[in-house]
Design brief:
- It is a single chain.
- Helix 3 crosses helix 4.
- With 491 residues, the protein is of the alpha+beta class.
- The strands form 12 sheets. Strands 16-24-23-17 form a 4-stranded antiparallel beta sheet.
- The radius of gyration is 49 Å and the shape is elongated.
């Protein structure tokens, strides 16, 4: 209704001049006879009320611009068509209505049209020229390692459903373009072509009984990534056989070629033997020695590499084959997993000592054990305490170890660089042990041993000239005698 929109008639303006004093006979006759008279209409506009009414109309009329969009999802391609937006020009429409009222009852409003930045034409072009060809069929990437009829070949066939996951859309201004997840693409290609890749293998050696055999080097193969993504991009626009990309495998040469092994020679660098206690009371300990010696046997330490006894012994657990046996903790024997392996550590230390290799880390026992050379022995509590040495020669060092009767034998096979001279100093600052009686069921009997300090020196010579020397000073605490009185004590 006009009134609800602030539109009305200005009665005063309409009647203005309709009455007044006149002696014109025609006017007088009109008054007497009551003749009709036509008066022009005059409108009145409440602009505030009219603007409010137009704004209410705008709520139904206005529409938002819909930007065109193409989205690639796991479910496929989703296209949003571009649409124009419109908005009613409130001020312009109010002016138009106010000017037309009351003569015209039908007024054309004023509107503003907004176009989307990304047109429907561009959406259709992008879908037709880029998306549809890219997803028309699978892209195949093939590769062959080596040559000849027996050369292994593999193919990565990337289906359209997989391409959808790798492709995306990118908008630059009013243009759309396809993007490609390069990292994801290479990962997908390697799912199938990765079987052709292999790392290079350096020339090395292995122990075969008492002999050392050279294992030749082998070249590796790696997928050539450079240019592969670009080739796949090009294949996305092609058809048929042109959607197949030939990938290349590059040869990766080993760091130590077989030719280097020709200069290797293997002879005993040093050997050491250690007697261990046997009998029923030492059954678990003896078992651990057999497991450990077998694991260490055949260990190869390449030039410049480091030997770790903890690593060579393998899994120090029940699953790894080890059992509980006496170990030294805070100067006392207690039961612990892998007890006895310190004797292997002592053997390793002495062989590495006399082989003249670089000594990196070892830890003597807290008290002296008479079956070991004083000052030239080592305990083990891996990974806290390890026995480590480095092969500083130009030839691999092969560790050969075995048990014969009640003796551990170990020899390093390689190329010894130095003559080794050993000086075992005298025992000094000797201290006597005490005696303790223990009535606990966990007690482990322990024999007494003196405490003392000793210095051991290793001198390395080449051609009669001293090259270097290592000096180790070891202080042993007295080992107190422990007498177990509980009937369940012992091991």
């Amino acid at each position: 209704m006009p009134a609800e929109a602030g539109l009305s008639y200005d009665v005063d303006a309409i009647l203005e001049g309709a009455t007044g004093l006149s002696f014109d006979p025609r006017v007088l006759w009109s008054h007497v006879s009551g003749g009709a008279r036509s008066l022009p209409l005059q409108g009145a506009v409440d602009r505030e009320q009219l603007a409010a009414a137009v704004e209410r109309l705008a709520e139904d009329y206005d529409t938002e611009v819909v930007e065109g969009e193409v989205t690639l999802t796991d479910e496929g391609v989703r296209v949003v068509e571009a649409e124009l937006g419109r908005s009613l020009d409130v001020d312009g429409t109010v002016d138009a209505v106010a000017s037309a009222w009351p003569d015209d009852r039908r007024v054309e409003g004023r509107a503003v049209v907004a176009a989307p930045t990304l047109s429907q034409d561009e959406v259709e072009r992008f879908t037709r020229e880029e998306v549809d060809p890219a997803l028309s069929e699978a892209v195949r990437v093939t590769a062959t390692r080596g040559s000849g009829d027996d050369a292994p070949t593999a193919t990565a066939e990337i289906a359209p459903r997989e391409l959808v996951e790798l492709l995306g859309t990118e908008r630059t201004g009013d243009t759309l373009s396809l993007t490609l997840d390069e990292e994801g693409l290479m990962a997908r290609i390697r799912q199938d072509l990765g079987q052709l890749e292999r790392g290079p293998r350096d020339a090395t050696v292995e122990l075969d009984g008492t002999d050392v055999d050279v294992v030749p080097a082998r070249s590796g193969a790696a997928l050539q990534e450079e240019g592969l993504v670009a080739a796949v991009r090009e294949a996305l626009t092609a058809e048929g056989e042109d959607r197949t990309v030939e990938a290349t495998l590059e040869a990766v040469e080993p760091g130590i070629p077989t030719e280097v092994s020709e200069a290797w020679s293997f002879s005993p660098m040093a050997e050491f033997t250690s007697v261990f206690p046997t009998g029923e009371a030492n059954a678990a300990r003896t078992h651990n020695l057999h497991v450990g010696v077998e694991n260490v046997n055949g260990t190869v330490v390449m030039p410049g590499r480091q030997f770790s006894l903890g690593v060579a012994l393998g899994d120090l657990s029940e699953e790894g084959g080890y059992r509980e046996a006496p170990v030294i903790v805070d100067g006392r024997l207690v039961m612990g997993l892998g007890g006895g392996l310190s004797q292997i550590s002592t053997v390793v230390f002495n062989v590495s000592w006399f082989a003249g290799v670089q000594l990196d880390a070892h830890t003597p026992h807290s008290y002296y054990i008479s079956r070991y050379p004083a000052g030239r022995e080592a305990t083990l509590a891996y990974p806290i305490i390890d026995n480590v040495w480095t092969n500083d020669t130009d030839t691999p060092v092969v560790v050969r170890s075995w048990i014969e009767g009640d003796q551990i034998h170990m020899v390093f096979l390689g190329d010894r660089q130095y003559d080794v001279e050993t000086i075992d100093g005298p025992r000094r600052d000797v201290r006597q042990p005490e005696e303790h009686v223990d009535d606990s069921p966990e007690c482990v009997p322990q024999g007494p041993a003196e405490g003392f300090t000793i210095t051991n020196v290793r001198i390395l010579r080449s051609g009669g000239q001293e090259v270097s020397r290592d000096e180790f000073t070891t202080t042993y605490h007295p080992a107190d005698e422990v007498v177990c009185t509980h009937p369940e004590a012992g091991y």
